Amino acid sequence: MDYKHIPVLLREVVEILNPQPGQTYIDCTLGGASYTSALAKEVGQKGRVIAIDADEMAIKNAESIIKNNNFQNVILVHNNFRNLADIAEEYSLEGVDGIVFDLGLSSAQLDDESRGFSFQGDRPLDMAFGAGEVISTQKIINSSPLSELTRIFREFGEEFQAYRLAKEIITVRKRKPIKTTKELVDIILKITPVRFSKSKIHPATRVFQALRLATNDEFASLKEALEATPKILKVGGRLAVVTFHSGEDRIVKQWLKQESLDCLCPPQAPVCVCGHKALFKPIIRKPLMVSEEELKANPRSRSAKLRVAEKIFSF
Ligand SMILES: C[S@@+](CC[C@H](N)C(=O)[O-])C[C@H]1O[C@@H](n2cnc3c(N)ncnc32)[C@H](O)[C@@H]1O
Asked: Which stretch of DSSP H or E encloses residue 164?
């Protein structure tokens, strides 16, 4: 299998996690296994890397990487990271040294012709990372009411034509269900004003991103996984998250901000009644972005942001 993916911010992530021999890390987004491989080399035979991915293609690819490199310290887990708390229990993961997320999709998934992550070509309208997604992309497109379709395009894609597009989809699907990426792209192009149709960013970009986020329930999955991390990390353990979407970055930023505060009572409260304790301290105040050099080599890394925090309190 030819699994193509250029890792983003790999050097920065490894430097900031600072893995040492014998330590344990969880890579929640295995993808092309570059993060996992780098961590596995650093922690050595006495350490462990638990690598999770919802996509069977990533797991299969990593199996051959593990074999070729004779990694005996990597455990592959085919699961959704929203189940991180259960995974940790199953593999007795307590007091781990670091947890990393590198969100979104890999280039291999984008190129996969059996799924419809890309708006190039004509592929089945399926944007699920893994089997078992409750909602399929086709179901979203062919069954969602006007208000829900509009919300998805607006909230997840920041699509300025959200309502118009949702209306047109409903008109088209009354005649025949929309089943392929090309059918959807044709609808998007039909409603795109001429002045935008020649813009550098393809008019379908934001719509496809929105549908992928909705299909995989990505915002909710991320929140659930973040909530699970404090219990799994040791004090001094680090959480690193790479995002590519402003909505995802906002979730990480706000959650880390909240979990870095000792009290969540409203400012007018005379004394603290919530008893909330800060669990993390930020390691870098501002998110780290890719260098000019990385950007030149991999334009896809443009929107990447890395946030890192360290666990400071055990409950
Ligand atoms: C950008 S790639 C990760 C690349 C990886 N860091 C590397 O070094 O190659 C993101 C991966 O996360 C996986 N993924 C995204 N959301 C997931 C979720 N909720 N649960 C499990 N895997 C997920 C995708 O299937 C994809 O393989």
From this structure: helix 162-175
